[in-house]
Every structure is written in structure tokens, then in C-alpha cells.
Specification:
Residues 27-39 have a biased composition (Pro residues). One of its GO terms (molecular function) is pyridoxal phosphate binding. Residues 41-55 have a biased composition (Polar residues). Belongs to the group II decarboxylase family. With 318 residues, the protein is α/β, with parallel strands linked by helices. It has a domain at 89-309: Type I PLP-dependent aspartate aminotransferase-like (Major domain) (Aspartate Aminotransferase, domain 2), CATH 3.40.640. It has helices at residues 55-62, 81-93, 104-121, 134-149, 153-156, 175-182, 203-215, 238-248, 285-288, 305-309; strands at 127-131, 164-169, 190-193, 219-226, 251-256, 280-283, 296-300. Strands 1-7-6-5-4-2-3 form a 7-stranded mixed sheet, sandwiched between helices. Residues 1-37 and 47-52 have low confidence and may be disordered.
């Protein structure tokens, strides 16, 4: 009597070579524009999946080979084998890093990594949290800046809040307007500051926008500078922007999601000169440090700020 397979996958056909290797219908690597890779011939969409084509097999053949050493994109900087091995471990252990009881080792690792990132910023102390993406890190920062300026909003909501205005570069990431929309600030209250011919925020224009908001009776509360803009890779002049924030008592957040990793370069860290004066920083190690996606951190200079604003911090079961 034939043996009965213990796992349905035992009876599945062995997967073929991935489509980017030699000897397959795509003879040239898929990044060659002259010979674009096509989906497998038996792929006709979700309704036409053949019984002999497991989903995992299809996924390998129809996906872009992001692990290839010559694949580069906005979010990817190559494959790091140590990072890949670590991801195998985390997937196998399936941790949820919310209490020490559930994930003691990973909480300690997270704390060590965040403290090292804070050290690169030049802060003597601070706090941080990993987030699902740079957009969420920026939204967290807007929320913290608003709480810092109007702490009553946490309990009383927006009904008694003044008209708040935030400032950022014309070349900023779209997440700034999204954060204003999500948090009830309003996209019309995001004032965009002109940039120079290299895409960097002009400090004098920032000063003008702050004065404009004051004249309108609004309440300026936040400036978001960018270290590594999405399109041209511009780095805003942080020191000069920090001077203006200090003058007007504004929270300074730096969106260094892309460019933050330049802090590890002796040659290029000068691009972020003045970042130690920021109140908060968004930094995505998956964009230049070859960490797996997603690896995004929000770092805050005030080590008590995240705890102050966390509405569930005193929950008994935590």
C-alpha cells in the first residue's frame, strides 16, 4: 500500500528554477529593458490557476527578484545575508514586541538598536519606537509635536484647539499632508516652503511663512525638515532651520527616512549637520543599511515624551 503523505505539499511537483536564472524562457536577467520578463505561460490570472501550480511556486515566478544583488529601488539597497538570516529567525519565532513577558530577548535587542541610533544622532539620551513605515513615523512625530504645543488635545480633543499650522519643504514626502489629514489638522494648514535650485528648503522663506501664519492669527507649532528628499535627494540646512525653530518655539522634526543612514558615513554625515538639534527624527534602516522591509524608527529627544502621550501606558495588564 502506498504511503499516505503527511503534508499535502509532499505531493506537489518540485518547483522549477526561478525565472531570472539562466536556462529559462527569460534568457536575460529581468532588469534588462530590451528583454522584459513575462509571467509564466500557464499564468492566466487568479481564475486560471492550474492545480499543479501552487501559490508559492507562482509567487516565485511572477515576483520581481528583489533579493538579487543588482536590484536597486527606492526602498531597497541590496541583499545583506546577515539581515536575511535574522529575518528567518524572527519569522520562525513570530515575536510580538509589546511586553517583556512575551518577547524578552527581542525587547532588549530593540532597545539596544534604538539607543545606538540615538547615539548616531548626537543625543545624550532619548527614546524611540519602530513603526510600520516612514509615513507612520512622520505622523507619530506630528502627533507628538501637537501634544507638546497643546497637551489638552489628548483628553479634550480638537473642539477647543486653535488653528495649528505646520511647515515643510516643497520637496517633502507626501506623508506630511496625509498626517495633517489623518490628525484633523487639515491639509490647508500645511504651509510649503520654497526650495532652492538643488531642492533644499530656503530658511528665509521659512521665516516668511511663520510670520504669515502669525499674521493670520494661526498657531505655528511644527517644522518638518527633510534629509534626503524622495525625488532629488536634497538635504535641508538643519542648523539654520533649527535657529528659526528656537526663535519661534517650534518643534523640529527631521524626515531622514532615506538620508539618515548617511550618519554612518565619515564622508557624507556632514549633510545632516545640525540633526542633533531636532526634537524627533524618522530614520528607515531598510533604505540604505540593507535591513529587511519594514525597518523604520521614530526617535525622540525627550526620553519621556512617548510615555507621556501613550494613552494606554498605565493599563494594568501591561
Amino acid at each position: 500500500m502506498p504511503a499516505v503523505p503527511l503534508d499535502p505539499r509532499d505531493s506537489m511537483p518540485a518547483p522549477q528554477q526561478p525565472h531570472w536564472t539562466q536556462g529559462t524562457p527569460c534568457q536575460q536577467p529581468p532588469w534588462t529593458p530590451e528583454t522584459p520578463c513575462q509571467p509564466p505561460s500557464n499564468f492566466t490570472g487568479p481564475q486560471g490557476l492550474h492545480a499543479s501550480s501552487p501559490t508559492g511556486h507562482l509567487g516565485l515566478h511572477a515576483s520581481t527578484p528583489k533579493g538579487h544583488p543588482r536590484f536597486f529601488n527606492q526602498l531597497y539597497a541590496g541583499m545583506d545575508h546577515y539581515s536575511l538570516a535574522a529575518r528567518f529567525i524572527t519569522e520562525a519565532l513570530n515575536p510580538s514586541v509589546y511586553t517583556y513577558e512575551v518577547s524578552p530577548a527581542f525587547i532588549l535587542i530593540e532597545e539596544a538598536v534604538l539607543m545606538k541610533m540615538i547615539e548616531f544622532l548626537g543625543w545624550k539620551e532619548g527614546d524611540g519606537i519602530f513603526s510600520p513605515g516612514g509615513s507612520v513615523s512622520n505622523m507619530y512625530a506630528v502627533n507628538l509635536a501637537r501634544y507638546n504645543h497643546c497637551p489638552d488635545i489628548k483628553e479634550k480633543g480638537l473642539s477647543q484647539a486653535p488653528r495649528l499650522v505646520m511647515f515643510t519643504s516643497e520637496e517633502c514626502h507626501y506623508s506630511m499632508k496625509k498626517a495633517a489629514a489623518f490628525l484633523g489638522i487639515g491639509t490647508h494648514n500645511v504651509y510649503f516652503v520654497k526650495t532652492d535650485d538643488r531642492g533644499k528648503m530656503i530658511p528665509q522663506e521659512l521665516e516668511k511663512q511663520v510670520e504669515r501664519a502669525n499674521e493670520e492669527g494661526a498657531v505655528p507649532f511644527l517644522v518638518i525638515a527633510t534629509s534626503g528628499t524622495t525625488v532629488v535627494g536634497a538635504f535641508d540646512p538643519l542648523d539654520e532651520i533649527a535657529d528659526i525653530c528656537k526663535k519661534h518655539n517650534l518643534w523640529l522634526h527631521v524626515d531622514a527616512s532615506w538620508g539618515g543612514s548617511a550618519l554612518l558615513s565619515r564622508k557624507y554625515r556632514k549633510l545632516l549637520h545640525g540633526i542633533h538639534r531636532a526634537n524627533s527624527v524618522a530614520w528607515n534602516p531598510h533604505k540604505m543599511l540593507m535591513a529587511g522591509i519594514q525597518c523604520c524608527a521614530l526617535l525622540v529627544k525627550d526620553k519621556n515624551m512617548l510615555m507621556k502621550y501613550s494613552s494606554g501606558y498605565w493599563t494594568s495588564f501591561l
